Automatic annotation (TrEMBL):
Classification via SUPFAM superfamilies: Flavoproteins
Short name of any one Pfam family annotated for the protein: FMN_red
Keyword 4Fe-4S appears in the UniProt entry: no
Flavoprotein among keywords: yes
Highest taxon of source: Bacteria
Domain NADPH-dependent FMN reductase-like: residue ranges: 11-161
Protein name according to UniProt: FMN reductase
Keywords: Flavoprotein, FMN, Oxidoreductase
Amino acid sequence: MQTTQNTGTLKLVVVSAGLGVPSSTRLLADRITESVRRELAGTGREADVRVVELRDLAVAIANNFVTGFPAPALEEALEAVTEADGVVAVTPVFAASYSGLFKSFFDLVEPDALTGKPVLVAATGGTARHSLVLEHALRPLFAYLRALVVPTAVFAASEDWGGTGDALTDTLPDRIVRAGRELAGLMATTERRTPAGPSPADLFA
C-alpha cells in the first residue's frame, strides 16, 4: 500500500450496531460524531460524515456469508469504511462482548482495510459493570485488524446520560470530548492509505 498526506475534507465513517429505534447506541455515535466534527472544525478541517446503520444491513450481512457476495448497499458500506480517514465504531453490549451483528460486519471488511486507520471504539450497556468490554473485546479486535485505536474508549451506561461521574471517572460528555479530540488529531495527521499501483517490476513482468 502507498500513503499520501491527508488534505482538504476528511472522511469520517460511523458504524452503529444499535438495534432499537430510537437507539442509545446511535445516540452515543451521534454525540461522538459531533465532537469529532467540532474538533476538526477548530483546526480548519471539514468532515464528510457517513453513518452506517448495521440494523439496515443485517439481512445483507447474513446473505454475504452464504453467497460470498455483498449486496450493493453492503458493498457501499464496506467501501466507505475502507476509504475512510477515521472510523467511529459503536456497539451495544451483548453477553459481555460486542454484538454478533457488529462482529459479522467487520468480519466482511478486507483484512488490511483498517491497517493504520484511526478508530474510536465505544459501547453502550445497562450498567457500568459492562464497561470493560471496551478493553477486553473491542480494543483487541481492532488491534488484531491493525487499526490505530485512540486511547480513550467511550462506554455509556444508562446512568451515564446526565450523570456527574465520580472521583476516578469523567462524566460522559467529558469522555466524548476527549475521545473526539484524540480521533480528530489522528485523522488530521495520519497519512491516508491508497491502493498500491503496479510496481515497475510488475509492468515489465
